[in-house]
Every structure is written in structure tokens, then in C-alpha cells.
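REQUEST FORM: STRUCTURE PREDICTION
Request ID: SP-0412
Submitted by: Lab K.M.
Chain count: 1
Length (residues): 146
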Amino acid sequence: KVKFIYGVLEKQFHAYYEKAATASGKTGDNLLILVERRLDNVVYRLGLASSRAQARQFVRHGHITVDGKKVNIPSFVVEVGQVISVREKSRDMEHFKALREGTTHVVPKWLTFEAEQLQGTVNALPQREDVDMSFEEHLIVELYNK
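STATUS: Completed
RESULT:
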């Protein structure tokens, strides 16, 4: 279910699990925090895209910048303090014009979004309670721990 929601295939998800297992803290929480910090997911959470698939396409097509540099890798992991924005050349697209004109979107507390500039900032790392979907991450850990 988690792989499907975030659009991650098995090999990449297993790599996320391995990374989460070596980090300190609960492996299940670390895993969800890692996939939550993917650039395509952050673009979706900021409200720049209406779905994760659309966010992935925006990133792949070069419409998104991180700290002013174009990033076209959806699995890019954002860090605290980074600024995610829409490229200057892409701001005239109809989708982004509508966002600037005032559509409201609830942004998680670990992100801030400025609609006028079409940019968001990562203020903190996401916590488990910031993931609004119900997962039983201990079952994921049990599966991969075999």
C-alpha cells in the first residue's frame, strides 16, 4: 500500500528500508519519513500538483527547482531549510497561474508555502504524526526483516 501511494517500486522501497534500518529510532517511522521527504511528494504536499503522479511529472519535466537549481529527479530527498519552487520559465503555465490566484491548500506543519512566489520551504523533518494516512509500519518492518 505504501509503495503504491508513493509511487515507489520494490527495489527502491527496499533501499529505503535498509537506510531506515541503519538510522537511529524506530525503523517504521524512519521509513515513512524518508518517503515523505521525496521531492515529488513534497511538491504534492505543497499543493503545486493535484496528485503525486502529477508532481512526479512536474519534477521530471524540469518545472521544479530546489534552492534555485533545477532538479528533475523525483526521488531527490529534501533537507531542512531547502526552498522548493516553480521555475521562472514554468510560472506561466495555466496550472501554476491558478495556484497563484488563490486556491487554498492545507500544507503540513513541517512545510510553509507562499502562493504568490510559488515556493515552499522545508522547516523541519516530518514526524510520524504528520503522515495523514493510516499505515501499520510495523508490518512493513516485519516483512523486510526476514
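NOTES: The mean pLDDT is 87.
Reviewed by: T.R.
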